[in-house]
Amino acid sequence: MKTSLFKFILLLLVITACNNNDIETAQEPVEIDMSDFYLYTNTDEVSSKQINGKSQINKCYTMSNLNRLLDETPGLETRMYAIEYQTRKFIASKKPSGTPGGGPNTEDPTDPAPSVPYDGIVTIPVIINIIEQYDQQITQAHIDSQIEILNTDFSNNNTHLSSVPDEFATLSADFQIKFEFAGIQRKTSNKNSWGTRDAMKSSKKGGFDPIDPANNLNIWVCEIGGGILGYAQFPGGPSKTDGIVIGLDYFGENLDGKEYGHGRTATHEVGHWLNLRHIWGDGGCSYDDFIEDTPRADGPNYGCPGEVYSCNNTVRDMTMNYMDYVYDNCMYMFTEGQNLRSRALFASDGARRSFID
Ligand SMILES: [Zn+2]
Fold it and tell me: How far is the CA of 323 from the centre of ligand 1 (A)?
C-alpha cells in the first residue's frame, strides 16, 4: 500500500515537472551566450612556438590580417559581432535544446526575425585573379585541379578519409557546396612579394579589383612573400577586398609547393572565408574555435603528426582537420559542427546569403 502511494506521488511529481518544463520551453527566448567571442588575437604566439628546437612560421596570415582590418575599418567589429550572434542563434535553432523554430529573442526588441535555413546545394562561382612572374606559371591544369580539390574537400570525398581516427569518424562533413570556375583575370609582374596588405586586390596598386564579390568567390594567386602560404578575409569584411589569396607555389596540384602542393591552402582559406576559425582557436587552451565537436588545442600542429594531446584532453587533437597547419596530405576533414557554422552564412539573414538569392 505504502509503495503504491509512493509511486503515485512520484508519478504526480514527474507529470508536474514535465508540464513546467513544457511551459518554460515555450516561453523562454533563445539564450545566446557571446561571452567567449573574440576578434583580436595575439598572432606572435604561433611564430614563437618551437617544435624540436625549430621555430615555426605562421603559414596562414588570416588572423593577422583580421587584426589590421579591425584597426582600419570603422564598424567592422560591430558587423562581425552581429554575424557571430546570427550564427549562434542559427546553431541554437538547429539543436533539440533550442526553442522550436528558433524564435526571436523577445527580450531584445532590436533582434531580427528568425533565420530561414537554406538546405540545398550552395553553388559558389569562382573568379581566379592571377599575377604570375612569367607567362603560364599557373597553367590550366593548376586551375582545374584546384577547383576539383575544393569540390572534393567540401563534399567530404578526400582520398585520405579512411585515415580519420575512429573517435572522429562520424564527424566528417559534406558541406554540400559546389565550386564552379566563373572567370579569370591574369597578368605577369616581376614583383616578388605582394605582401599582406591587399595590394594584389587593387588595380590602383598593380593588382586586380575583385569581380562582384557578393556573388563570386575571388581567389588571388600571387607571390605573397614572408613564408606565407595564403590568407583570407572573414565574412563581414570590406567588399573590395573580399576573397582569399594563395601563393603561386601552393595553388592547385603543384610540384613547386612540395608538401603544401596539393591544393589544401585554398581549402583552409575558403574555410576562413566561410567563417571558420583555426582548429586551436588562436590563443591557447582558453580560446575556442566556437565549434562543439572539435577538441580544444593549445596551438597549431605541423608536418604529419601522429597522436597529439593538448589542454589536458583525453581526446587527441584533430590534427587532420583542414583548419590546422599540417601538410596538405595530412589534412582531410571538416566536421559537422564546422558545416553548421558555415551554413548559417546562407540562411535568410546570413552574411553570404547573396550567393543564394
Ligand atoms: Zn588560417
Answer: 6
